[in-house]
Specification:
Blueprint (H helix, E strand, L loop, with lengths): L2 H8 L5 H12 L5 E5 L5 H10 L3 E6 L15 E5 L6 H11 L4 E6 L5 H11 L3 E10 L10 H8 L5 E4 L8 E5 L1
Parallel strand pairs: 1-2, 1-4, 2-3, 4-5
Antiparallel strand pairs: 5-7, 6-7
The protein binds S-adenosylmethionine.
The site of S-adenosylmethionine has 20 residues, from α3 and β2.
Amino acid sequence: MDIEKIVTEAKANQVNSDIKLVLKILSFYSPKVILEIGMDKGGTMKIWSQAFQPDILIGIDIVKKPDEVIEIVRPNYHYLWDMNSNNLETVNKVKEILGDRKVDFLYIDGDHSRLACERDWLLYRDFVKVGGIVGIHDVLFHNRETEADIVWSNIKTLFPYSEIKTSHSSTGWGLVFV
Ligand SMILES: C[S@@+](CC[C@H](N)C(=O)[O-])C[C@H]1O[C@@H](n2cnc3c(N)ncnc32)[C@H](O)[C@@H]1O
């Protein structure tokens, strides 16, 4: 896997050195079923697609950005645009797509308010297999709209975890091994 190339080309909303380290860790697990909440322009979806060639890749975003959206068309790649991850309709859609498959890697990077982020965790964590991984972005940062750190401080008491912050500008990644 050419991590350097994958990360540079994807133009995700990420500190490159953070996401490279996340990819190195995830590569030990070779996730084949991946669910992302908060796609923005699809940068991290592209990264998961190129790094792991998942059998099933599902992304959710409350709004489709008018331009520059990267959407990779493959069977079993599902871009759920204009869907609120906090709604049960969206949970049911994910359930329908997954069928009897479990998620190997869940990435939560949607609405960063405490309530919405906590609800994403509560609504989607049961889709993740035992031995799977949940990643949450911005867990080492706080402002009025970004409260994932509060949710993270609870979640990390429940499972083995890693925190990633590779540079001063990084807002931090949290990984829990569920
Ligand atoms: C920080 S961006 C995601 C960045 C992307 N994961 C990346 O690294 O390139 C957060 C995204 O979450 C989406 N979002 C916000 N609230 C949401 C919700 N309730 N349900 C689904 N997506 C949501 C926003 O539209 C935005 O595109």
